[in-house]
Design a protein that fits this description.
The complex is a heterodimer of chains A (112) and B (110). Helix content of chain A is 0%, strand content 54%. Chain A has no helices and eleven strands. Classes of the chains: A mainly beta (112), B mainly beta (110). The interface between A and B is medium-sized, with 23 and 27 residues.
């Protein structure tokens, strides 16, 4: 089975721009979660989608949004980028039954 | 609310045993995950404990006490490749809502 894939792997943007990140989960996994990872804060939960519905949301501003498509692929959007948004954005998918989440390689976003 | 505490760094000797502790306060707690993350890589799933007790998987074991809000990851026969960050994460407060600790950076020395 192919793992979780994320595109792009690296991205450089300037303040005020917006960005869209993509995640394809493991085949058969319907839950997709997004995390932001920075050296100081560790892994911070952004949101989780299941069957095209956002089930959970972390404590991030409204500039961070996401969606999930019928094939379980998910996208995350950040508008009006700020310097502090520079981070590794990780996507993780999981199946049913309380299994662990399987992480993609991440997208490294740098905001200049 | 959600709160996870684990030590920031630990050092251990190759071939030895190390225990990484984690305490958590999570509303609607479901279970406790452990992940391993090598520098520059994504986290990889190690274990998931729902019930109290010890679960063993090869050189790695994980323990959970729900009443004490406490877990530990035990690594035996340490190898150099075990040098990594170990993330404790609690599931609760919603479907698949997982709160991560900041991780314990383990350095294995010869």
């Amino acid at each position: 089975k192919a793992g979780v894939t994320q595109t792009p792997r690296y991205l450089i943007k300037t303040r005020g721009q917006q960005v869209t990140l993509s995640c394809s989960p493991i085949s058969g996994h319907r839950s997709v979660s997004w995390y932001q990872q920075t050296p100081g804060q560790g892994l911070q939960f952004l949101f989780e989608y299941f069957s095209e519905t956002q089930r959970n949301k972390g404590n991030f501003p409204g500039r961070f949004s996401g969606r999930q498509f019928s094939n379980s692929r998910s996208e995350m959007n950040v508008s009006t980028l700020e310097l502090g948004d520079s981070a590794l954005y990780l996507c993780a998918s999981s199946g049913s039954g309380g299994q662990g989440q399987y992480f993609g390689p991440g997208t490294r976003l740098t905001v200049l | 609310g959600q709160n996870i505490d684990q030590p920031t760094e630990m050092t251990a000797t190759e071939g030895a045993i190390v225990q990484i502790n984690c305490t958590y306060q999570t509303s609607g707690f479901n279970g406790l995950f452990w992940y391993q993350q090598h520098a520059g890589e994504a986290p990889t799933f190690l274990s998931y404990n729902v019930l109290d007790g010890l679960e063993e998987k090869g050189r790695f074991s994980s323990f959970l006490s729900r009443s004490k809000g406490y877990s530990y990851l035990l690594l035996k026969e340490l190898q150099m490749k075990d040098s990594a960050s170990y993330l404790c994460a609690a599931s609760g407060g919603g479907y698949q809502k997982v709160t991560f600790g900041t991780g314990t950076k383990l350095q294995v020395i010869p």
